[in-house]
Amino acid sequence: MLAGEDFSRWLERAGGAKAVGSDLSDLDNWPSPEVRPDYYIDFDETGPYVAEVGMGECAGA
After folding, report:
1. pTM, full prediction
2. Residue 55 burial (CB < 10 Å; 0-12/13-18/19+)?
3. How many helices (H) and strands (E) in the chain?
4. CA distance 35 to 1
């Protein structure tokens, strides 16, 4: 977006909702972690994502 531009103007300039939706269509289908474990690596991490909750992370303790 340009400075001072509202969303409606940006959307018009970007080609409309259909064009933006088409540009984002690659996000419609996410591979499973078993098929593409590399897809689930957090930014700045080297190993696969692990769903763990530790101290100080919503664990309440």
Report:
1. 0.48
2. exposed
3. 2, 0
4. 36
Reported as a pLDDT band with limits 50, 70 and 90, residue 25 is very high
Tell me the two tokens of residue 15: 């080609």
* 10 touches 1 (CB < 8 A): yes
**Could you give the angle at the alpha carbon of 16 between the alpha carbons of 15 and 17, nearest 5°?**
135
Calculate the dihedral angle through the C-alpha atoms of 54, 57, 60, 61, rounding to the nearest 10 degrees.
50
The residue type at 31: P
Residues 19 and 40: their CA atoms lie apart, in Å, by 27
Instruction: Note every long-range contact of 50-57, with CB atoms under 8 Å and residues 24 or more positions apart, other chains counting.
Output: none
Between the CA of residue 60 and those of 6, 23, 54, 55, 57, what are the distances in Å? Answer: 40, 40, 9, 8, 7
